[in-house]
Inverse folding.
């Protein structure tokens, strides 16, 4: 390594050559002989800048040299090294200090000595860890399974996290990723991606329809279907008042598609009254009315608790639509779950439907993607809409391959998700609690809806309680369990099982649920105000 | 006569009302498909590139989460990096450039009766299926584009609408860099700054359709941050020259991103474990940006080769080629773009004998009524480009010998 030695003599910097530099110390032999500047002045500051592997890079050596007494006093102080900013232990809080021998901790807002061991000691301190955990802008991803987490006091804990918020949280497995990487690709905008074509053909065949179209999400699939059916201006759609398409698509059919809707009251089993439908269909000769162009059904009905719609009712609805001359669209986001629950093929369920939307990114576990299925003519129009919405992806075969793998390997095991959901519901039923209730008959697929009595507990509080751990709880259960769930209304908490949930997760979640419900049942005081 | 089985029909199609001219071509002896041992080079677009092994490895190893809950760490990392390198506050990962532009326009023009000023050759205007009008109720107001991809800056205050019950309200100015239709032109930095200055003086934000802005940055040597300085938002593609399978990013102020996330959701762009795709984008930022210069060099080689032929029928000037797109002009009296593309997809025995190595087929896109577009990319190596040049020279000489 090249060593550069500068001697500052009375303010001027002169390069010194031939000095003996060993291990960071400076022998002043050459200087004592007099340097290129002539006589050595009484006081002089020498800066040595050299790169030494693993050691202190910069040292300031102050020397007071008087001609009478040859006294050398060497003071070394560490300077800040930029390489430290790349080290893992120092990332996110270390910056340079005010002077070059100081460092600054942004989290504690404190100046520190720029020495590596000092900084390491600081980073391990309790106060720093606490503050760092609080101020972390990008918290580590919520990891399902066993996780090491730092709490508010900076103490690490081993938690079992069971994520039951939705079946969209599943991680792609190693085999699924392998299938993705080995897929043959092409440009789907030119319709040249063979893997996407394979997926589309396969799903179309599975549902016994003519063609299918791969899209990035279920929201886009439903939006495309509605807009394709309602191709003309002034259209209206009849849709259930508890359906996902109406409630949770951000009003997309109106906002983006200029399509109006008429809601029909959903019954608790996810169906609606067919007679009422007749009453909602508009008179096409009336200029005050928009034109009814589509009827939508959701199967399984998510808000009703993931209920599979009875097959005979679907057939009756189909017959009604044929009679009225209206197309029928099925929002089949979790259609495969419904087919497993009913014990019939998905094609049979949607036999009477003109178009279907099916999600790969939910229970089937693919990282993203959904499909629109319908007639060839329908799909040709749908393709145009997909492009204008921005869903025309290029080498999308890489994600379509995940869908294909999911259909082969995850679809056959969907009944396990239903079993797990029933196990969770069963555990809540066994408590015979009045605070948190569930109807076991309502659990058809992988969704469990817990109803809170809104006196001892409401949905938000229940979710918070399930996601936190108390000391007594960890003592009694001898395990720290966090169950993540979603509050979908003031009094309803939704649990959704999926392919990442294993037996031990179900067991832990069951124990947690029982403990928490038991806690509510034993409450001696009312924690929450009763609003009258 | 011709090798029908090798014709690429999907790019040609039938355009009603198009007159096919008399194309005199010497007779070719057909060869069967199974005999074709030559090279097929696809220069239709830089979107056709496939992910490399390194990119796939990065995708497989990425940490993922549910991006709709904003829990995907790889997507967050990509968004942070893009915000940093463009000098903006925040970024958002979206499935495509079309959606990126659509979200940006809808986000800027939130109220009814809005109008957007943009060039008449802009991709947003021509090739996004009129999305802003179809889905957003927004009117595009076009300004004539110059051959270098710019438009007259003075047109902005002239075409700006003032408050009147007859007028929509101008709410946005859109720029495109590199300008695709003009031939991948890098628009001058001083022009971008001027547009920004004028737009600011009349109170309008500027959005840049930067689908290929990485190419512009590499070609001009100017940083992304500098190019986008006057633009409030920009849409940048990874699925083009940078070679990822899917994905684009919008960059802009943090407040805008709140709107953008909502718009992305309603349009159906809320993907779940999108970190796998974001990982490919991060990989491309680390490994694929600098090699864009190679694509530009390859484009120059093709342009030079065509220019050297000094043909009356097929012309192209290397000075017109700024980045990886080459627009080749055809003599309308001699050959149409469709015929030229068809010819490049055919090969005869004489040709194979003369050029050796089994012949070359080149896929390109007919662009306008008199031009054809070639786009170089990372899957077209120097050998491929040289094969293309060989083929082009043969075809041009053949054309010149007839006409």
């Amino acid at each position: 390594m090249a060593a550069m030695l500068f001697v500052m003599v009375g303010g001027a910097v002169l390069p010194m050559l031939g000095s003996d530099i060993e291990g960071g110390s400076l022998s002043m032999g050459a200087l004592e002989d007099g340097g290129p500047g002539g006589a050595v002045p009484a006081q002089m500051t020498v800066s040595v800048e050299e790169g030494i592997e693993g050691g202190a890079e910069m040292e300031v050596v102050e020397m007071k040299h008087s001609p009478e007494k040859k006294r050398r006093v060497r003071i070394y102080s560490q300077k800040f090294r930029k390489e430290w900013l790349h080290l893992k232990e120092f990332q996110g809080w270390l910056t340079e200090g005010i002077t070059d021998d100081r460092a600054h901790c942004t989290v504690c807002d404190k100046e520190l000595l720029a020495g590596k061991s000092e900084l390491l000691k600081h980073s391990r301190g309790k106060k720093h860890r606490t503050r760092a955990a609080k101020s972390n802008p990008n918290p580590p991803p919520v990891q399902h399974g066993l996780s090491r987490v730092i709490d508010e006091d900076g103490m690490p804990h081993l938690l079992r996290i069971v994520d039951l918020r939705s079946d969209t949280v599943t991680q792609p497995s190693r085999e699924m990723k392998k299938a993705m990487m080995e897929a043959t690709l092409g440009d789907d905008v030119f319709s040249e991606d063979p893997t996407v074509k394979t997926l589309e053909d396969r799903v179309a065949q599975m549902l016994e329809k003519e063609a299918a179209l791969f899209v990035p999400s279920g929201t886009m699939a439903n939006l495309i279907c509605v807009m394709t059916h309602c191709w003309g201006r002034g259209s209206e759609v009849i849709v259930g008042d508890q359906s996902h398409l109406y409630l949770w698509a951000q009003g997309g059919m109106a906002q983006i598609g200029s399509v109006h809707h008429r809601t029909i009251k959903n019954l608790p089993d996810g169906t609606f009254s067919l007679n009422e439908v007749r009453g909602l269909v508009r008179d096409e000769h009336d200029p005050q009315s928009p034109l009814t162009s589509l009827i939508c059904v959701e199967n399984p009905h998510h808000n009703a608790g993931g209920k599979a719609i009875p097959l005979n009712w679907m057939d009756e609805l189909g017959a009604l639509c044929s009679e009225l001359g209206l197309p029928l669209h099925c929002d089949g986001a979790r259609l495969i779950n419904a087919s497993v629950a009913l014990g019939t093929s998905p094609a049979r369920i949607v036999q009477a439907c003109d178009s279907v939307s099916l999600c790969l990114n939910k229970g089937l576990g693919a990282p993203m993607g959904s499909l629109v299925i319908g007639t060839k003519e329908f799909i040709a129009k749908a393709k145009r809409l997909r492009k204008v919405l921005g869903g025309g992806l290029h080498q999308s075969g890489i994600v379509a391959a995940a869908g294909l793998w999911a259909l082969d390997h995850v679809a056959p095991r969907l009944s396990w998700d239903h079993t797990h959901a029933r196990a969770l519901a069963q555990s809540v039923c066994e408590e015979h609690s009045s605070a948190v209730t569930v109807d076991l008959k309502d659990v058809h697929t992988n969704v469990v809806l817990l109803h809170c009595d809104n006196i001892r507990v409401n949905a938000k509080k229940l979710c918070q309680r399930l996601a936190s751990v108390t000391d007594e709880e960890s003592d009694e259960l001898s395990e720290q369990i966090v169950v993540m769930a979603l509050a979908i209304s003031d009094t309803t908490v939704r649990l959704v099982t999926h392919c990442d949930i294993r037996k031990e997760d179900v067991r832990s979640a069951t124990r947690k649920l029982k403990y928490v419900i038991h806690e509510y049942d034993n409450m001696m005081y009312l924690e929450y105000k009763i609003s009258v | 006569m011709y090798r029908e089985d090798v014709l690429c029909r999907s790019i040609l199609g039938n355009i009603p009302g198009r007159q096919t001219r008399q194309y005199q071509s010497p007779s070719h002896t057909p060869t069967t498909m199974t005999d074709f041992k030559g090279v097929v080079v696809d220069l239709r677009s830089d979107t056709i590139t496939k992910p490399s092994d390194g990119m796939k490895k990065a995708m497989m190893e990425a940490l993922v989460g549910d991006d709709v809950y904003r829990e995907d760490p790889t997507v967050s990392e990509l968004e942070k990096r893009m915000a940093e390198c463009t000098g903006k506050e925040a970024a958002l990962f979206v499935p495509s450039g079309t959606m990126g532009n659509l979200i940006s326009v809808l986000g800027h023009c939130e109220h009814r009766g809005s109008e957007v000023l943009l060039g008449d050759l802009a991709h947003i205007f021509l090739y996004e299926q009129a999305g802003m009008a179809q889905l957003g109720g927004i009117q595009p107001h076009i300004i004539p584009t110059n051959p270098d991809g710019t438009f007259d800056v003075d047109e902005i205050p002239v075409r700006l609408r003032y408050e009147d019950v007859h007028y929509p309200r101008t709410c946005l100015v859109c720029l495109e860099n590199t300008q695709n239709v003009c031939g991948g032109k890098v628009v001058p930095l001083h022009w971008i700054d001027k547009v920004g200055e004028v737009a600011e003086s009349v109170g309008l934000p500027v959005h840049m359709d930067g689908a290929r802005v990485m190419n512009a940055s590499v070609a001009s040597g100017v940083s992304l941050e500098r190019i986008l300085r006057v633009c409030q938002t920009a849409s940048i593609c990874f699925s083009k020259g940078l070679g990822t399978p899917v994905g684009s990013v919008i960059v802009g102020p943090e407040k805008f991103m709140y709107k953008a996330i909502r718009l992305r959701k309603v349009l159906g762009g809320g993907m779940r474990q999108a970190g796998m795709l974001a990982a490919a984008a991060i990989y491309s930022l680390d490994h694929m940006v600098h090699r864009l210069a190679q694509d530009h060099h390859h484009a120059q080689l093709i342009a030079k080769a065509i220019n050297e032929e000094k043909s009356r029928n097929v012309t192209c000037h290397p000075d017109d080629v700024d980045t990886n797109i080459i627009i080749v002009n055809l003599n309308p009296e001699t050959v149409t773009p469709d015929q030229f593309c068809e010819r490049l997809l055919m090969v005869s025995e004489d040709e194979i004998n003369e050029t050796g190595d089994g012949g070359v087929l080149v896929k390109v896109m007919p662009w306008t009524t008199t031009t054809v577009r070639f786009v170089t990319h990372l899957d077209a190596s120097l050998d491929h480009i040289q094969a293309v040049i060989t083929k082009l020279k043969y075809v041009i000489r053949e054309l010149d010998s007839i006409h």
